[in-house]
């Protein structure tokens, strides 16, 4: 019976193609790819500003409850602090941080005070209440300012490839970060990963200072992570490294990855190799090359994380569905081409939206004014929802193919698709297909044998709305600039 139904679906796919179907997508759930560890976002730069319990509860529910996005990965920023004597970032700005490590004028020493960063800790505690979070990542954009050459956490005075971490303070940074890690573990936080380095290839500092950051050359990354690995062993910590949070694929990323992989003492303590998906939004060929490089060099026996992305430059208002479509396309491409196990957006809330002709421009899933008295959900929220609400941790990505040709060209003249997709098999044996369409409205033929399906749509007229539920169809219509998630129930093995 299963073979017969599969044959019928193949025939229907062929016939519908003769009568004007724009694209056929065939899902073969027998061919499994990577396992999905989940979906996340960062609480950096905004959670520390929320002191109202109701606001905290609203956002935590929207992000980390099953009623909301059901995100299971929480990225907590270990801030480098603000030097009270001199600092090039305004201490009151949205990008300043409060550190647990401070100078006690009475003792004349730097000490730890874990009552600090209270609002950020309170938000994490609230988010944990809803039971979805199984992975907390502690990450740092910079070492503590007391350990840097410039005396600030915002980068070197010189920029242009110079690190800001003084060599004599490498071990101090390790001890500082792991002491904070121990605090969170003892508190009962599910701290699975630590990421002490973030976007090491960027210059950070110099003539531009807008946020925390620290440059590291490949050898410096290796030397510092070697000390972190030893520190994890010496302290007997049940935590893994997520490294090196490279700011993009290509350039120095391969060198960073390779130097860490080649040291067995480091490699055993690496839980994931992490990169950020910036500057390749319409370059799936580059992502494909990187994905093949990861496989060919056997990095995929570790987890691969896409741990940070937002649209750069960001030009879409919170109510512009195109911003959501772009985000969904990046998610689909990172999963499909680079084989990532998890995907996290940059920040969940942007408190520095730029007004252009009255529009609220935001790269996050929520927009808020400076005092959080006004909060607005962005269309990008729905982009994440199309994945996180239907593809839980433990799902497997499966093979999905199309017989059509690419319809656009990137800046290098390489063809790519304006319609992208990703398919999954969930732990409860459902098959999920996410389709992101930036092309004209079209009919999509569905090569997925099933008895029942439910369709959820986000476009100009729908916000993650159920637009069909019933007997499985052989095709659906998708509009221009839309995200469509199709959940197939009672699926049939393809033989």
Concise description?
This protein has 495 residues and is α/β, with parallel strands linked by helices. The chain has helices at 2-18, 53-64, 118-128, 170-186, 218-235, 253-261, 264-267, 284-296, 321-338, 380-388; strands at residues 23-35, 38-42, 73-77, 101-104, 109-112, 135-139, 191-195, 240-246, 270-276, 303-308, 342-347, 349-350, 354-356, 359-361, 366-368, 375-377, 396-402, 408-409, 415-416, 419-425, 431-437, 442-447, 452-458, 465-471, 475-478, 482-489.
Report on this model:
The protein has 495 residues and is α/β, with parallel strands linked by helices. It has helices at 2-18, 53-64, 118-128, 170-186, 218-235, 253-261, 264-267, 284-296, 321-338, 380-388; strands at 23-35, 38-42, 73-77, 101-104, 109-112, 135-139, 191-195, 240-246, 270-276, 303-308, 342-347, 349-350, 354-356, 359-361, 366-368, 375-377, 396-402, 408-409, 415-416, 419-425, 431-437, 442-447, 452-458, 465-471, 475-478, 482-489. A nine-stranded mixed sheet has the order 24-23-26-21-20-17-1-22-25. It is globular. It starts with a helix and ends in a 6-residue tail after the last strand.
């Amino acid at each position: 019976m299963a073979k017969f139904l599969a044959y019928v679906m193949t025939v229907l796919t062929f016939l519908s193609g003769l009568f004007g179907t724009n694209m056929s997508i065939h899902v073969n759930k027998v061919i499994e790819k990577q396992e999905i560890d989940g979906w996340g976002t960062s609480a950096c730069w905004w959670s520390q500003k929320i002191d109202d319990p109701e606001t905290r509860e609203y956002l935590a529910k929207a992000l980390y409850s099953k009623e909301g996005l059901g995100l299971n990965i929480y990225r907590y920023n270990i801030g480098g602090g603000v030097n009270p004597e001199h600092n090039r970032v305004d201490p009151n700005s949205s990008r300043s941080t409060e550190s647990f490590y401070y100078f006690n004028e009475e003792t004349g020493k730097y000490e730890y005070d874990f009552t600090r960063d209270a609002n950020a800790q309170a938000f994490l505690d609230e988010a944990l209440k809803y039971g979805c979070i199984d992975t907390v990542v502690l990450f740092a954009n910079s070492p503590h300012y007391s350990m840097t050459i410039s005396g600030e956490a915002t980068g070197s005075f010189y920029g242009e490839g110079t690190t800001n971490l003084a060599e004599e303070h490498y071990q101090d940074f390790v001890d500082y970060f792991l002491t904070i890690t121990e605090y969170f573990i003892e508190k009962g936080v599910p701290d699975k990963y630590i990421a002490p380095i973030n976007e090491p290839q960027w210059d950070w500092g110099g003539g531009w200072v807008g946020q925390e950051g620290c440059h590291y050359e490949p050898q410096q990354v290796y030397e510092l992570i070697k000390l972190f690995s030893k520190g994890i062993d010496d302290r007997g910590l049940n935590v893994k490294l997520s490294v090196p949070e490279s700011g993009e694929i290509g350039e120095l990323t391969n060198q960073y990855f390779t130097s860490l992989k080649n040291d067995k003492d480091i490699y055993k303590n690496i839980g994931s190799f992490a990169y950020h998906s910036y500057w390749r939004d319409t370059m799936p060929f580059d992502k494909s090359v990187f994905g093949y490089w990861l496989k060919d060099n056997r990095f995929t026996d570790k987890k691969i994380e896409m741990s940070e992305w937002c649209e750069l430059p960001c030009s879409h208002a919170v109510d512009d569905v195109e911003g959501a479509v772009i985000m969904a396309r990046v998610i689909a491409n990172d999963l499909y081409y680079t084989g990532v196990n998890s995907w996290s957006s940059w920040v969940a809330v942007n408190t520095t939206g730029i007004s252009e002709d009255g529009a609220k421009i935001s790269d996050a899933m929520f927009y808020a004014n400076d005092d959080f008295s006004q909060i607005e959900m962005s269309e990008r929220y729905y982009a994440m929802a199309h994945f996180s609400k239907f593809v839980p941790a433990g799902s497997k990505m499966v093979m999905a193919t199309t017989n059509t040709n690419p319809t656009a060209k990137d800046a290098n003249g390489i063809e790519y698709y304006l319609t992208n997709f990703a398919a999954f098999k969930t732990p409860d044996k459902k098959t999920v297909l996410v389709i992101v369409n930036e092309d004209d409205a079209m009919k999509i033929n569905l090569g997925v044998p099933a008895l029942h399906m439910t369709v959820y749509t986000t476009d100009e007229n729908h916000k993650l709305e159920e637009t069909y539920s019933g007997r499985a169809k052989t095709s659906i219509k998708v509009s221009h600039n839309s995200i469509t998630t199709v959940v197939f129930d009672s699926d049939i093995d393809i033989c």
